[in-house]
Amino acid sequence: MARSIAKRNRCPRGHQNPSSRKKSHSCTYLGHRNYSLYINRVLKEVVPERGISSRTFDIMNNLINNIFERICTQAYSLMCFRNRRTLTPEDIQRAVYLLLPGRLAKYAVAFGSEAVQRYVHS
């Protein structure tokens, strides 16, 4: 019995054991994106003569990632609540309405829907 388990865990052709291999940075990274390029573009559109520090970029980036993660979690729970297996745009819109306050949610959904329509028709 012990031999069969040892044979199954061994890698073919003398490669290292998968658990002992050195992992690259991309494998261990949690998937948070860096939005500093987009933050800078929006800043230059609104106030062309101003700039912000790298610490402020990090704070804004964390804010965007945090809100994105909350929207995803809320949309997933709405999808499960409806006993569906497909995430629909309505789930995302409802999640935004639940998470963001009043007019901010209204504008976020309006701009998001417009962006999706432009993407679909391009």
Can you put this structure into words, describing what you see?
It is built from six helices and no strands. With 122 residues, it is mainly α. Helix 4 (54-81) crosses helix 5. It starts with a helix and ends with a helix.
Shape: globular
Quote the distance from N terminus to C terminus: 60 Å
* Structural class estimated from helices and strands: mainly alpha
Helix content: 55-70%
Largest sheet at a glance? none
SS summary, helix count = 6
Unreliable spans? 8-12, 23-28
Q: Proportion of β residues? A: under 5%
Helix-strand string: HHHHHH
The total count of strands amounts to: 0
Mean pLDDT: 80
Radius of gyration: 22 Å
Blueprint (SSEs and pairs):
Blueprint lengths: L1 H8 L15 H4 L7 H11 L7 H28 L7 H11 L2 H20 L1
Short description:
The chain is mainly alpha-helical and 122 residues long. The chain has helices at 2-9, 25-28, 36-46, 54-81, 89-99, 102-121. α5 (89-99) runs antiparallel to α6 (102-121).
Question: Which key phrases capture this entry?
Answer:
about 120 residues; mainly alpha
